[in-house]
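Handout, tutorial session.
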Amino acid sequence: MSKTMILLKPALMITYIALTMSLISMSKSDPLTEESTTGLTIDLIHRDSPQSPSYDPSLTPAQRLANALRRSFNRLQRFKADRSPQSDIINAGGEYLMKYSIGTPPVPSLGIADTGSDITWTQCQPCLKCFKQELPLFRPNSSSTYRKIPCNAANCTSLSEITFCSVRRKKCLYDEEYGDGSFTQGVLSTDTLTLASTGRKRVSAPNFVFGCGLRNGGIFSGGESGIVGLGGGKASLVRQLGVLTRGKFSYCLVSGSDKSNSSKLNFGANAEVLGKGLVSTPLVKNSPDTFYGLTLEGISVGNQRLELSDSGVSQEGNIIIDSGTTLTLLPIDLYNKVENALKSSIKLKRIKDPQGVLDLCYFTRNDIRNIPQVTVHFKGSDVKLRHDNVLVRTSDISLCLAAKPVQDFAIYGNLAQVNFLVGYDLVKRTVSFKAADCGRP
């Protein structure tokens, strides 16, 4: 026993496209209208933006950032330890929220968009143990298209690492536990999932497999209803949407200080990353295949290239790219090299982080724009970071290196991805980067 599944996103739209799909068998090529095969784009809401139900107006920007930085360390537990089919943590690291609808008629819900999870799940009535959420709980009995998955169905047996049979062996149950103590348990089910594109196009996905959570708990803020799984496994949203996504999705994340614009999540043809400045790196097979592994070779600060390995040979898949982790977490030796190189280049007074989280901080009330170029060297690609990908403001007087050392393995966090169009191609097995102004329409 151990995992989960769910649903995804709503909004008020006009055009309606029916996408018939079967869960894990994506070899079928279902007929789609030409419009639906062009892909779709969805807004992502940062959990600390005024658009989020989790928004706390009493917190200062520095306090919100400090909370996000601490969530990075909680989220690390997801990727540490066994890396088994059982995920490790949940919401503590979820930074972006995604609207969706489930059922007929469609019921709005809000989930954490998580590239570190496969299973999509939402809280359901009758809830035996649930955390508080802003939106009404989903009522399966009120949906004409809701179905419980039988115990002997392929959708149950193919997910045997997370499912088990009820006592009378009539329905398929799931159980997902996470390393921070969060959990979800319930009935593996199908229903119609509705996604609303920013182009006012509505896409309907019948027979979407998700977890109808009856017992759920842990570190949740009260805004979200569950998780939207965007990982690489067969149960994820990307895989289940099959012919619509063609194994492709991308996102463009706006800065946390941008209160007027939303980040964007793209699927299918809309997810193409093209044009001048595009660089791509191989996507490395991980176990489990939920996590998106890349190969980090080193980081340059100015003209000084700092290798991850003294031998010059890096282990394949040694860093996980994750939209839900705020900080970039680097192996200790590489982090120390980068920190020392920046200390030699930036001639400002160093201070302790007022939030007590980051290690290298400078006293300044202004942005430091003339720092040396920092370039992340992935296998086959060099990603040139902007100053605000490298340094983050933690108070009115402090700018700090947006990275921390870890003893385990590395995570490429979302601050390093802000204002980049980041594209995942699960067919070609690549991740692509292109510098962009993600706040532009």
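The second record follows below. Compare its token runs with those of the first.
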Amino acid sequence: MGGGEEEGASSWTSLCWGLSGRMAGYPYLTSAHLRGFDRYKYRAVDTSPLSIYVIQPAWDFMVSLCPQWVAPNLITITGWLFILSNFLLLSYYDWDVTATTGSGTSLVRSPIPRWVWFYCSVGHYLGYALDGIDGKQARRTKSSTPVGELFDHGLDSWAAILLPVCLASVFGRWHISASDDFWPCVSVLGAFYVSHWEKYVTGVMYLPWLYDIMQLACGFCYLATGIWGTGLWQYELLPGLLIQQLLVWVLELAFIGSFPMSLWNIYCHYSNRTDPHPRRLSLLQALLPWSAFVVMTMLFWVWHQFSLTDIVEKEPRIFYFVLGIVFSNISCRLIISQMSDQPCQLLNPLFLPLLLSLSLSFLYQHIELNILWTYFFISLTAHLHYGVSVVQQLCSHFNIYCFSLQKKPQ
């Protein structure tokens, strides 16, 4: 791309971000937050053999093909949009998660076109790859800032719910209802949250071993469904044990499997007296971030479990997407607390309208669907406003553009 095209692309992204900034602009971050971001240094540990010997070399090759004028955050949001496009495409063809439901165990062909599954596989792997090279592009172009890390992990927190919800269309409702997807979704969110809680406690990002395995497996599920059809997942591995059930159990164990490793990493961190940058929190401070996650889980569990109109079965995608929005907002605030070295919030502002919506859904069950959609728009608007405002505030503080490597005028 020539210089004129590069300048045009940068101007376009700057214009779009500037317009969004005018719609936001609320200073959510205090001066203490900003001073903490000034002191912040990224620290990470990756011990996964798969990552070290296979994935990272592949990312190194891919980033070498990327033009140096491309801003890392542009790579980040492009990857996230691929993941979002999978969700939107499957929502179009399978809104209520019933399109791939069949009977018996015979191989059936899904009414979802085969090309959709191939697109989802490619889109998933592209999103995964772009998420893996954005940080490398930042270091390559000497444009690493706390803004990039927050932007990356913030979008990752929102993408976390899209994985299990998209897989629900792969498995359909053969032996699992939409309500049964609740705990697998919460488990995947919990696995993401525990890694950032671990970073909040230690100041170090210990990259989880399961992350790459699950990403590769998810893309393969789309690909295999496109080749052999959704009936593939209904074959019995053992008497009474279907492939589908086994994979759902794996998702449910994602959180349980990641928690012991995080506790071990925390123990090793606190036992290391030679760390030049130790982070020491009291037990109460360390456990504080879990209050918001537990309250979120309890409120959504009550709604899904005691809904008088069986709201999850009627609108599974909206219900779980709203869960993902609230989770992403909680996660973003945790990440900001860690990066700025500030105390984590006890509760989340989105809980108040959530509690009100939950209460109204029991009082006015005939409009429960409208209540859910109303809360969806409230939480989506609030989360977008928060995210855009925070990134705009940090970009102003560091005197940079979000989607361009051009320098702001002094």
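Points raised in discussion: The beta strands are 44-45, 205-206, 236-238, 241-242.
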